Inverse folding.
């Protein structure tokens, strides 16, 4: 049943006749009369008793009147909810990423997002590397993924952001005698704790590993556990420079020669992004120091 037919029916009931209802709806009287006849034909019932000067509801009409008003009320409530999301008064964006980006850039992007859009919420999902991010997007569990932008992202829409500079954070005793900027090959003799299960990251760090990755003494995907192991002197690790500055400030941080960087960006599932997703993208661009490109909300 067309929504406009429901609206026309309720208007006729409220105004007690076709003429005044047509005036209130800004349509012609014949058009409204035809619409009511169409509604009756589709339902297979007579809705109005037309014997008097004022249209009166039949029993079927009274039942439809109750249902029609509930339908219009539900539509109005839904419209208010959509308007609230479109105007960024409420809503949530679901974001998926993995350990490599769980602190940098995710924490700062979420902070900026909440500062700019305090009525919006974020749900963060954990994945196992780039493939897990794409799987979550494909299944609809998340709308945006934070990912190494050099990773294969198939048919998903990609928004490149910027790069992480990676450094070696280490207890002093494990890198004694090494300069503050070291050749990558010098790290092959340093015991490391890294997430070696992330094949994309493992490939990125290949120059820092000895034969068969023998200097990876702890394979751990949990950032907090990795940092604790480094602080307790178990091994060194490779982290974004910003993470080393904030989370491992008590360790020695070595720059690499040549520098080691990791590009990151956002990937989005197909279709128009939600208003909350567009807001998250704007926060990510602000974090990356990129200009804010004009975006339009979906025409729902």
């Amino acid at each position: 049943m067309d929504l406009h037919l429901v609206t026309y029916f309720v208007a006729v009931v409220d105004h007690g006749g076709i003429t005044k209802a047509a005036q209130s709806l800004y349509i012609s009287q014949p058009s409204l009369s035809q619409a009511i006849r169409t509604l009756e034909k589709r339902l297979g019932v007579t809705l109005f008793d037309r014997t008097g000067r004022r249209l009166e509801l039949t029993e079927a009409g009274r039942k439809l009147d109750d249902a029609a008003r509930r339908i219009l009320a539900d539509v109005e409530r839904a419209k208010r909810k959509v308007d609230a999301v479109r105007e960024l008064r409420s809503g949530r964006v679901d974001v998926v990423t993995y350990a490599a980006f769980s602190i940098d850039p995710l924490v700062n992007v979420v902070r900026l997002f909440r500062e700019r859009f305090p009525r919006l919420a974020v749900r963060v999902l954990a994945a196992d590397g780039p493939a897990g991010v794409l799987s979550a997007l494909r299944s609809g569990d998340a709308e945006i993924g934070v990912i190494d932008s050099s990773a294969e992202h198939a048919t998903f829409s990609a928004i490149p952001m910027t790069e992480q500079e990676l450094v070696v954070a280490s207890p002093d005793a494990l890198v004694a005698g090494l300069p503050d900027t070291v050749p990558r090959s010098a790290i092959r003799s340093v015991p490391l704790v890294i997430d070696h299960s992330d094949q994309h990251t493992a490939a990125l760090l290949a120059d820092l590993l000895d034969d068969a990755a023998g200097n990876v003494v702890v394979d751990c995907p949990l950032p907090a556990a990795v940092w604790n192991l480094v602080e307790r002197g178990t091994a060194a690790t490779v982290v974004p420079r910003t993470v080393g500055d904030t989370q491992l400030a008590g360790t020695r941080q070595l720059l690499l020669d040549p520098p080691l960087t990791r590009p990151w960006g956002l990937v989005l599932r197909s279709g128009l992004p939600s208003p909350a997703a567009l807001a998250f993208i704007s926060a990510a661009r602000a974090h990356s120091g990129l200009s804010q490109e004009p975006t339009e909300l979906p025409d729902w």
Observations:
- The domain at 163-262 is CATH 3.40.190.290 (D-Maltodextrin-Binding Protein; domain 2).
- The longest helix spans residues 59-86.
